[in-house]
Design brief:
The chain is mainly alpha-helical. It contains 14 helices and 2 strands; from the N terminus they run H-H-H-H-H-E-E-H-H-H-H-H-H-H-H-H. Strands 1-2 form a two-stranded antiparallel sheet. Strand 1 (138-141) and strand 2 (145-148) form a beta hairpin.
């Protein structure tokens, strides 16, 4: 599809939003970009059940947030109203516009690179100051503005970790493939620098998922994939894991009873408390602490009213993923699956909307891309049936 001038400007603005992900005023760009999409993208297209569910969710979430006096500024409220649907539709549109595997891979690569670029710069600067490990788990951004790695940075890095699936794909473009591998490697350096255990788990899960999906457990494909995997882990072990500071830092975190991994960093108790409150407070409750789970944090703000449409949307997203897995998959499809897995798991253990609206928006954009990919495969399936 040939892109018009307005569509090209929209894509440029999108990358501006991504590359300013750590800018404190990024919320203004998120809102402006979201509003612009309503004018540039055709109103009659990409309005489906998923978008309607997101619109209902956004309106109810914003209403309950305002009603319960949980919102800090008008622009934050506007972002909660306009941004989810806008990014989802943008994901639908971009996947339909970039109608081949290569251009989709290029777009996804530059999206994640621009989104993580400020974090990579901060990490490199921090390593030069404090060494390879930062046990304080904070990076100094914009003077004295510190953000804990356990919230914003850990969420952001999930997108980079999801790129590790390019290790096993059949992508023929060597430079594009190696670029993705380097991107995932840089994400892991940031994860280890900030002693982030969730990132390690996500990395292992994404490796396993992409290995199974790409090889289909076919013996002819498994052996080359294992060789690539061994070489990759040797590089990581030699360059990172052998560092004694890394071992000591993770050992210390694990020995800390307040963040023991068997209790998922103390989150299991928080989740049980949130589930109990959801039963006793169906319209939301006052925040004492985050629930550290996207769906439970939505329930805390908007109760069952906001939670239900988003739960249905989540089920639709999983149905789309499973449908893609059953069909012939290109490297961009495998990449979308592992990014979905990484971001979904991270959203399950962190406060998302209040932690990072840019992460939530980008995650929904990928859900929209996944829906378009699944729709394409359904169309192909139906054509084959009627042949």
């Amino acid at each position: 599809m040939k892109l018009g001038f307005g569509h090209k400007l929209l894509i440029i603005f999108f990358f501006m939003v991504m590359v300013t992900s750590l800018w404190p005023n990024n919320i203004y760009l998120l809102v402006i970009f979201s509003i612009i999409t309503y004018f540039i993208l055709p109103i009659q297209k990409w309005w489906n059940v998923s978008c309607i569910l997101l619109l209902i969710f956004s309106l109810l979430y914003a209403f309950m947030e305002y009603f319960n006096m949980e919102v800090g500024s008008g622009f934050i409220l506007l972002s909660h109203i306009f941004t989810p649907v806008a990014f989802y539709r943008f994901g639908n549109w971009i996947m339909s516009s970039l109608n081949n595997n290569h251009t989709r891979l290029v777009f996804i690569f530059f999206t994640i690179l621009s989104y993580l670029f400020p974090l990579f710069i901060l990490t490199a600067h921090d390593i030069s100051l404090v060494g390879f490990i930062n046990e304080s788990r904070k990076l100094n951004a914009y003077g004295d503005y510190n953000i804990s790695a356990a919230t914003l940075y850990g969420l952001m890095l999930a997108f980079g970790i999801g790129c590790v699936s390019m290790l096993f794909t059949k992508e023929k473009n060597f430079y594009l493939r190696i670029s993705y591998i380097i991107l995932s490697f840089l994400a892991m350096i940031a994860v280890i620098h900030l002693v982030n255990r969730t990132g390690i788990v996500l990395f292992v899960v994404c490796i396993l998922v992409s290995f199974v999906v790409s090889t289909k457990l076919n013996i002819d494909k498994i052996i080359p994939a294992i060789i690539v995997l061994i070489l990759f882990f040797i590089i990581i072990k030699v360059s990172i894991i052998n560092n004694i500071d890394v071992i000591n830092a993770y050992s210390y975190r694990e020995s800390d009873s307040s963040s023991n991994v068997t209790e998922i960093g103390g989150r299991s108790e928080i989740w049980l408390d949130a589930i109990n409150k959801l039963i006793t407070h169906p319209f939301g409750w006052e925040r004492i602490r985050y629930a550290h789970n996207l769906w439970l944090d939505i329930a805390r703000i908007g109760g069952w009213l906001a939670l239900m449409p988003f739960l249905i949307l989540t089920i639709i997203a999983f149905k789309n993923i499973f449908f893609i897995l059953k069909r012939k998959m290109f490297s961009s499809d495998i990449l979308l699956v592992t990014i979905f897995v990484a971001t979904f798991l991270n959203a399950s253990v962190e406060p998302v909307i209040e932690g990072s609206m840019s992460f939530f928006s980008l995650m929904l954009m990928f859900w929209g891309m996944i829906e378009s990919a699944a729709l394409e495969k359904r169309i192909i399936k139906n054509k084959n049936i009627f042949k």
